[in-house]
């Protein structure tokens, strides 16, 4: 499969996660004839043209989603960089009437931009930190912040280092971003009770952070690399080119050097055995990125782990509703909001809809 066809396959997962219909996604993808460039038929051009159409109609969240796809998988040129800027701007316009605020956390290594809701000095709530993987910007997941009241949480959505607006470098020490975020929320949230919804590669960072920071009380992740991915069980050329190109971009290293650089990032059995918080993990039987052996590693070493497995590829694109429900229920149980109390959490039904009841892009 060539690189453009691979991008098109992967795009469906990320478009569907942003409530686009499969047919609409396929329609836009059919217009794309080349991956690079900015004009008609280009990746950035086709998605950005669709985004502009929604923007002109005042449909800012739809515009944001399409701009997010236009910069996918990372901003490697003028077209994708412009799409990222417009993606942020569209979300900024959408969020203003929805109680979502922008946060910027400055660290010695760079700046972490976030979208947040539910922060309060008078009524500090437990924190839900939300991060995507190496190819998804925070705006893809940030609409979840609008559910902060229903979730009874302070919801903070951001990106992995090097992704989107996050200017931190992606290194073995990138997990330190999580404690820095919690430190910045002191006084406006109950930072002693934090939970991480950390998807894909950010799940690895969240586990490392929880080993060092006992404010993190639970982790939910989908397809996170743990040990076997880093130690090289899957040859670099056998991985999707989108994954390897993006990792090379984030690390600033070419192929073999990037692979070698990652080898000591693996979580050891001792580290995993020291994880004293619940870990809830979604695995996929046909995952083309994360080795199946990761599940055995988790089962063998993590004291409190629950794994659900779907017959699907990385990210479970065919099981998005089921994944959302499982993650939500896991979060509620970690926080002790089970049984009759769960039913009392207003607005959660919007997150529990299993199929097409949610808003779709026409």
Characterization of the model:
- The chain has 17 helices and 8 strands.
- The protein is α/β, with parallel strands linked by helices.
- Strand 5, helix 9 and strand 6 form a beta-alpha-beta unit.
- Helix 1 runs antiparallel to helix 2 (22-30), helix 3 (43-56) runs antiparallel to helix 4 and helix 3 (43-56) runs parallel beside helix 5 (78-95).
- The protein is globular.
- 46% of the residues are buried.
- Mean pLDDT is 91; it is low at 343-362.
Describe the structure in brief.
It is built from 17 helices and eight strands.
Q: Shape, please?
A: globular
In the residues, how many domains can be counted?
2
CATH level-1 class of the largest domain = Alpha Beta
Looking at the structure, the CATH topology of the largest domain is: Rossmann fold
Number of strands: 8
Q: Which residues form runs of ≥5 with pLDDT under 50?
A: 343-362
Q: How are the strands ordered across the major sheet?
A: 1-2-4-3-5-6-7-8
Classify the helix fraction into a percent range: 40-55%
Structural class: alpha/beta
Radius of gyration: 19 Å
Itemize the secondary structure elements and their pairings.
Blueprint: H1 3-17, H2 22-30, H3 43-56, H4 60-70, H5 78-95, E1 101-107, E2 110-117, E3 126-131, H6 138-141, H7 148-151, E4 154-158, H8 177-184, E5 190-198, H9 201-212, E6 216-222, H10 228-231, H11 241-251, H12 255-262, H13 269-273, E7 279-284, H14 293-301, E8 305-310, H15 320-334, H16 340-343, H17 349-352
Parallel strand pairs: 3-4, 3-5, 5-6, 6-7, 7-8
Antiparallel strand pairs: 1-2, 2-4
Helix pairs in contact: 1-2, 3-4, 3-5, 4-5
């Amino acid at each position: 499969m060539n690189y453009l066809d691979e991008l098109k396959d992967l795009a469906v997962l990320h478009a569907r996660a942003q409530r686009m219909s499969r047919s609409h996604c396929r329609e836009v993808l059919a217009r794309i004839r080349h991956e690079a460039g900015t004009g008609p038929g280009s990746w950035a051009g086709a998605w950005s043209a669709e985004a502009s159409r929604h923007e002109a109609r005042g449909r800012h969240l739809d515009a944001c989603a399409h701009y997010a796809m236009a910069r996918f998988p990372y901003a490697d040129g003028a077209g994708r960089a412009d799409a990222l800027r417009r993606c942020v701007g569209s979300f900024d316009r959408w969020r203003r009437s929805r109680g979502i605020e922008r946060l910027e956390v400055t660290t010695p290594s760079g700046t972490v931009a976030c979208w947040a809701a539910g922060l309060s000095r008078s009524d500090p709530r437990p924190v839900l930190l939300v991060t995507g993987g190496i190819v998804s910007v925070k705006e893809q997941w940030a609409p979840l912040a609008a559910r902060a009241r229903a979730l009874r949480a302070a919801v903070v959505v951001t990106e992995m280092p090097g992704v989107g607006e996050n200017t931190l470098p992606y290194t073995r020490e990138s997990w330190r971003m999580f404690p820095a975020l919690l430190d910045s929320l002191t006084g406006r949230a109950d930072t002693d009770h934090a939970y991480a919804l950390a998807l894909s590669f950010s799940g690895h960072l969240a586990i490392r952070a929880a080993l060092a920071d006992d404010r993190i009380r639970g982790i939910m992740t989908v397809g996170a690399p743990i040990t076997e991915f880093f130690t090289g069980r899957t040859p670099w050329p056998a991985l999707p080119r989108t994954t390897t190109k993006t990792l090379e971009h984030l690390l600033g290293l070419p192929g073999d050097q990037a692979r070698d650089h990652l080898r000591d990032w693996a979580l050891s059995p001792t580290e995993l055995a020291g994880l004293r918080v619940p870990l809830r993990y979604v695995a996929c039987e046909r995952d083309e990125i994360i080795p199946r052996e990761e599940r055995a590693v988790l089962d063998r070493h993590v004291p409190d782990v629950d794994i659900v497995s779907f017959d699907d590829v990385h990210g479970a694109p065919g099981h998005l509703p089921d994944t959302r429900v499982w993650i939500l229920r896991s979060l509620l149980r970690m926080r002790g909001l089970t049984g009759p109390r769960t039913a009392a959490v207003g607005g959660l039904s919007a997150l529990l809809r299993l199929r097409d009841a949610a808003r779709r892009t026409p």
